[in-house]
Amino acid sequence: MRADAVMIQESLLLWPLVLVRRVGKRRTVLFDFSDPVDRHGSGLKGWLRRRAFGLLVRHADAVMVENRAYLERLGDRARRLIHFYGPVNAARYRDARMTLGVLPVEGAVRIGWTGSPGTFRFIAPLLSIIDEIACHHPIEVVLIGAGSIDNPLKHARLTLIDWNEDTEFATVPTFDLGLFRLEDSEDALWRGAGKLFIYMAAGVPFVASERGIARDLMREAGVGFPVSDDAQWGEVLTRAVADVQLRREMAATSLVQVSSLSYDSFRQALLASLVPAR
Description:
Strand content: 15-25%
Mean pLDDT: 91
Number of helices: 10
Order of helices and strands: EEHEHEHEHEEHEHEHEHHH
Structural class: alpha/beta
Largest sheet: 6 strands, parallel
CATH class of the largest domain: Alpha Beta
Distance between the termini: 17 Å
Number of strands: 10
Radius of gyration: 20 Å
Number of domains: 2
Shape: globular
Low-confidence stretches: none
CATH topology of the largest domain: Rossmann fold
CATH architecture of the largest domain: 3-Layer(aba) Sandwich
């Protein structure tokens, strides 16, 4: 291997690559992850994953995390820790939003979500709450990547869109509100927040569980409608739907901060983490 540096991203199966730093010329190894890959699996599979995770953390020259909770958890195990939110293709989302201009106040409020059939379960309980709000305010629910689901809505309009890169870039900027719900579990505290970064890059205000990385991001960025627990979703969503001005202010604030989530910023952080560690 001729590379001067090796980046291992998310995959625990690549843990043997940390050993290349000892073979031949000196190489810098960076381990980067956003999802809680150390918490997946149970039994022997879970043990093997945790073992591989521990080896990567201990032997990599630097570990880059998305969730700040890992900074404290890995502080005495990693040689060097770096924190970075994202990245996402911020320029493409921002440009799509800027092309749309100011979204119209009249008509239905577009409440959207992007994900996969496997992650749809997190926001499924919100559909009945949104439908109740739609009795008093027209709402369109736009779900990207949810797959085929039964339509439980009687008052809100449901739009299902198959996920692909182009439709996500084109559709998310049209949302008036984005959804991000975390379950009340220990695992939720360690999750990443890719959806929130997409919403911010697209200038979309969002309603999010005030837990884990979502809580940190909302406090640091000054955007988002925080939901303290599941019982508060109806109240917070009602306020978010009604407060057009605050949604616009959050959208503007997000677009100002979008460069911090970009691939360019990620590359700069990556290079800064590799060069001093060599």
